Amino acid sequence: MKRTTYLDNAATTPVQPEVLDAMLPFLGPEKFGNPSSTHQFGREARAAIEGARRQVAEPLGAEPKHVIFTSGGTEADNLAVIGGALAARDSGKPFRVAVSAIEHEAVLSAARSLEAMGGEVVYLPVDENGAVSLDALDDALELGVGLVSIMWVNNEVGAVQDIQSIAAQCASANTTFHTDAVQAIGKIPCAIPNTHGVAVTISGHKVGAPKGIGALILRDDGIVQALLHGGGQQRALRPGTENVPGIVGLGMAVEMVTQNGDKAHKTLADLRDRLESGILSSIPDSHPNAAGGHRAPHICNISIPGADNETMLMHLDLAGIACSSGSACKSGSTEISHVMKAMGVNEQFARTALRFSFSHNTTQEDVDSVLEQLPAIVKKVRSLNSALRRN
């Protein structure tokens, strides 16, 4: 039987057995109550939600009341960016947001939607390692913005921002600050900034919970407006009957991925470094992206000139290796990654970039399997590409 190697954990992770075990009772015929009901079935569901709220909040230095459950990271980003901008506008602040040029499309699209409402968007540049320009942030804050959104860890290259400093900078300007922490939780130390006006997005399926569940953590009341309207659940910021099984799964998953701390982060870094050094030593002209800056330990983004990434991904898949060329949300696009563009990566390197990403399920055997097969695959793809160019 052919070995399969999954190194696309930045796209999604498998549901962990403990998470599934915690969820199952709420998917069956016994614990099915509506958490808004006052009878014992409803109270049981409500207690499960409140328990999960604590599991999400406490490891991140937040309070349970700060946690608003959503259908995932995209909804949480939209609630933060659009809801935050509208709340800022209605409080008399500028109807203008500042976002980094390397944000996930959920943030970028949400920001662009504000322009149709009469708002403005300021795009903050990054350097060649994906670090946001703090001078540009200063300029934006001086110009006047109602909200700043800068992701904690970039999903394509792993660039880590100094979120504590950025949050303090925004707080000093009395500006709401949002960070998409989807790729940060369980990968780097994540203490939510203890400053006013902070919003943080997390997503379940990146940490071993199911798809379709996430959360927005809000340090303060009044910093976002609701985008949905209904029965008033979750302080009316995200109404609708709660996804009890998903919420229970998210709580268990966050508790698990934050338990081992530095040891888990070091294990991920060792795996990344083992793969990266192996590729650089065995494949001529390969080049790691964003390697000169602060990177999260679970992402290795490396360019292999002469081997276009779409062809590489096809051959890797045939060899039983799953990875990606960047965000799964942009899969199939012929455009160069906006992250690569913003970092100033030239087209040749951008079109040959591969992203390998790890989780606590990844083993040294997985890494070694890639290192054993990748040189031959690169040689084959380079040969094919060379032949095509000659024709």
Q: Measure the end-to-end span.
A: 38 Å
Reading the helices and strands in chain order gives EHHEHEHEHEHEEEHHEEHEHHEH
- Roughly how many Å is the radius of gyration? 22 Å
Q: If helices are DSSP runs of H or I spanning 4 or more residues, what is the number of helices?
A: 12
Instruction: Assign the CATH class of the largest domain.
Output: Alpha Beta
Task: Please state the structural category.
Answer: alpha/beta
**Averaged pLDDT:** 95
How many domain units? 2
CATH superfamily of the largest domain: Type I PLP-dependent aspartate aminotransferase-like (Major domain)
Using the alpha-carbon principal axes, give the shape: globular
**Largest sheet report:** 7 strands, mixed
Give the assembly state of these chains.
single chain
Extract low-pLDDT stretches.
none
- Helix share bin: 25-40%
Question: What is the element layout, followed by pairings?
Answer:
Blueprint: E1 5-6, H1 17-23, H2 40-57, E2 67-70, H3 73-90, E3 96-100, H4 105-115, E4 120-124, H5 134-143, E5 147-149, H6 163-172, E6 176-180, E7 198-203, E8 214-218, H7 244-257, H8 262-282, E9 287-288, E10 299-303, H9 309-318, E11 321-322, H10 338-343, H11 347-350, E12 353-357, H12 364-390
Parallel strand pairs: 1-11, 3-4, 3-5, 5-6, 6-7
Antiparallel strand pairs: 2-8, 7-8, 9-10, 10-12
Helix pairs in contact: 1-7, 2-7, 3-4, 8-12, 9-12
